[in-house]
Amino acid sequence: MSAWRPLPDDSRAGDALSSPPLETFAGPAFEVLRAAPVGAPPPTALVFASPHSGNVYPDEMVAAVRLPLETLRASEDAFIDQVIARAPALGAAVVRARFARAYVDLNREPWEMDPAMFDGDLPDYAQGRTARVAAGLGTIPRVAGEGRPIYGRKLAFEEARARVELAHRPYHDALDRQLAAARAAHGAAILIDWHSMPAVAARGQRTKGGGSCDIVLGDRFGAACSPKLTALVERELETLGYNVTRNAPYAGGYTTEHYGRPARRTHALQIEINRALYMDEVTRAPTEGLAKLTAHAEALTRALAGLDLATLK
Predict the structure, then answer these.
(1) Residue 20 pLDDT > 80, yes or no?
(2) Rounded to two decimals, what is the model's pTM?
(3) What does each C-alpha distance from 75 to 113, 150, 166, 187 come to in angstroms?
């Protein structure tokens, strides 16, 4: 593992739209785009997260995998960081991953590890029997591309530990700090965890209007945020013309479950967007829908920024 370490979370990203389609191992593991200067209170209670939009594949991972990188890239939430790139200008802090999901999944508990992937026994604190591990989608994913094994060899647990310490832990430390700052300044924090879903997953869900699903809102069946927050986001998106469902097939992952504590003044909501709305899933090229979706994300951000936090009970 390289001696390189992520930059402090007061680093600012450059132009998110200028990122190349695939990056090598360089720069920070994540970026925090602030809505206010370091040390100043955040202007709103909003914190946006994009844990799966990264496209960095470190060399030591590439040397160990048996699948083409293009197959691994199908698990990326491509362009989602671009969709929310204007959020800091509208008052929302953004925490954006740069490592690919296939390298380390930041929307998992830190030690969800599949024992079958590793050479030797895992430590007692590893969680090897979760549903996500059973599906091959733990913190270090085992499979990609319709269930095909990612690696051509067993991994050492130290490799997994290094990925957690390099990316997972500091990412969540940064996210936690942004939420704490929002609570301190505004009495509450709103975390929106942004994701995308394959069109095939969206087609399996029917909306109340009868159409196929465009966006899924995951609030852990009401446990992760005030129902008024979910209702506001649903209403705004439907007004913009989207078919919206709740909690199926995605109710929210580790981020939503871990941070969503309405009784402790932190509300978390996951947003899953149908990739067919803005990209070609075969060529991975953006379509004209990307600009439309980005404009609508800005409109939603404005609505959230204007929310009366006292109503979130």
Answers:
(1) no
(2) 0.90
(3) 18, 12, 20, 36
